[in-house]
TrEMBL record:
InterPro entries: Aspartic_peptidase_A1, PEPTIDASE_A1, Peptidase_aspartic_dom_sf, TAXi_C, TAXi_N
Organism: Salix dunnii
Keyword tags: Aspartyl protease, Disulfide bond, Glycoprotein, Hydrolase, Protease, Signal
Name of the protein in its database record: Peptidase A1 domain-containing protein
Signal peptide coordinates: 1-19
Segments forming domain Peptidase A1: 91-421
Active site: residue positions: D109, D307
GO molecular function ontology, one term from the record: aspartic-type endopeptidase activity
Taxonomic lineage of the native organism: Eukaryota, Viridiplantae, Streptophyta, Embryophyta, Tracheophyta
GO BP field: proteolysis
Amino acid sequence: MKAYLFFSLAFLLLSLVQGTKTEGRGTTVKVFHVYSPQSPFRPSKPVSWEDSVLQMLAEDQARLQFLSSLVGKRSWVPIASGRQIVQSPTYIVKANVGTPAQTFLMALDTSNDAAWIPCNGCAGCSSTVFNSATSTTFKTLGCDAPQCKQVPNSICGGGTCTWNTTYGGSSILSNLTQDTIALSTDIVPSYTFGCIQKTTGSSVPPQGLLGLGRGPLSFLSQTQNLYKSTFSYCLPSFRTLNFSGTLRLGPAGQPLRIKTTPLLKNPRRSSLYYVNLIGIRVGRRNVDIPATALAFNPTTGAGTIFDSGTVFTRLVAPAYNAVRDEFRRRVGNAPVSSLGGFDTCYTGPIVAPTITFMFSGMNLTLPPDNLLIRSTAGSTSCLAMAAAPDNVNSVLNVIANMQQQNHRILFDVPNSRIGVALCSTATSIINEWEKLKSLHDFSSRIARTRLFMFDGLAGRRLADQPCHHFKKYM
């Protein structure tokens, strides 16, 4: 029976790849989780499951407070959102900066615009800094540069454009600079970013941040001629930290068979990726949610956004309460407990329903793997969603990165749309491989199994290989 299920899974994954064809290869960059072996930000000592969940919740709360504080207040999005970006970015990419290149692990953030990197001579920065003196292409921008008008709190002293950004209990003073940057083999000349000169307070920045928002200083805007303001990513699951996801830049190589929903424009928050969430379904039942809880309002900033920096999806209180109550009803009479900010946890096995976010023109149906955060022993699981922070500005619904995992999220700014498709075969194979490895009495049989499969992205056969061979295709 297990062998039958395994081969059924293999053929299912094969069909999924063939249904997510792409045109060309584009430029693809590996994306790592902050706790992956490739990351210097992972905890130096083992952390219990409960402590890691509580830490992520605390960081997420700060993230949500930041996003909520943006609505209706300013016309420019600050670079970072506080402790959760400065100390714990969720997903990072390798970026080469300067000539000759110096490598940094920069956090991805779809809700911010500008980039910043700690530079040599910085007071309060970590030991990993950019040595601008050795780069032959480095340039400091003056106060007359047009980019100086696009940063907040700019200061013009001594002819150099600087700006001061606050991060929770810390402040960061940066010079506005330019240098080459490359996430792949494509070198972007004269890329504008903040070169950090001083940090104060308890929050020390790591190796920088790369803003993927829609503002004038974002990576999208500065590489518009190269990547046409189009990108997508497939984020690796928390359960497979040894493997990477992908960031695909440019329109080439993006999925052709993909459902999309229009992007909405908010002049007050032009950087954020707003979409029209029209309903939520738990199992087969449409949840009764007040229209005001989902409505888009440019004046107040209310509505729904996709965000790469938030870990767990947050819904405004009326929407979350309705979804949570229906989720509990569908699970049944199992005892409910809480853990930190999660109010729907179970200490035994449950059969969880799917949750579907219904957008204009597109549905995103999430299986239990995108809905439940589970302990390593598997004895405890929690609904990985929560209500938005309880303050007057908390009007945002945020589709967070755990709910995006194992999906390719397409940001197509020229065509004003966001799309969602299943990730490519390689990612799906690895995720299912991790599940199958838990079947100890079956693992040796899996290791001996050889599959004939086709990689639709690469346009080639992955023929007659052991299952573990497919790990390298991440």
